[in-house]
Amino acid sequence: MTCKGCERHNQMMEMDIESAIDEQLSMELNHASEGLRDQRLAACSACPALSEHTCKHCGCFVRFRASLQDKRCPLGKW
After folding, report:
1. Are 74 and 55 spatial neighbours (Cβ–Cβ below 8 Å)?
2. 74 close to 45: Cβ distance less than 8 angstroms
3. pLDDT tens digits for range 17-56
4. Which Pfam families does the record cross-reference, listed alphabetically (predicted)?
């Protein structure tokens, strides 16, 4: 059980991470299709290298990497 203060802090961190990813993606030109991004994220969600938002193997935010057409999984899963 976590305290209410910790829960709010974690929620803010989630919002900050999502906002940072969205901001960076807005500056990118070569986006993957929504379907391709979703397939990639599904593979990431089943991967033991996923740690919340990041890949333990390369340290990237997986939603950011999966959203760009020319990026690849560092483990070759997509």
Report:
1. yes
2. no
3. 999 999 999 999 999 999 999 999 999 999 999 998 999 9
4. DUF6171 (PF19668)
What 3-state class would DSSP assign to 20?
helix
Closest-CA residue to 52 (of 2, 4, 13) = 13
65 in Cβ contact with 36 (< 8 Å): no
- Distance, in Å, from the CA atom of 65 to the CA atom of 78, rounded to the nearest integer, reads 11
C-alpha–C-alpha distance, residues 78 and 36, integer Å: 10
Per domain, the residue ranges of the chain are: 31-77
Q: Which two tokens stand for residue 53?
A: 């938002």
Q: Per-residue pLDDT for 1 more than 70?
A: no
CB atoms within 10 A of CB 49: 15
d(CA 46, CA 53): 13
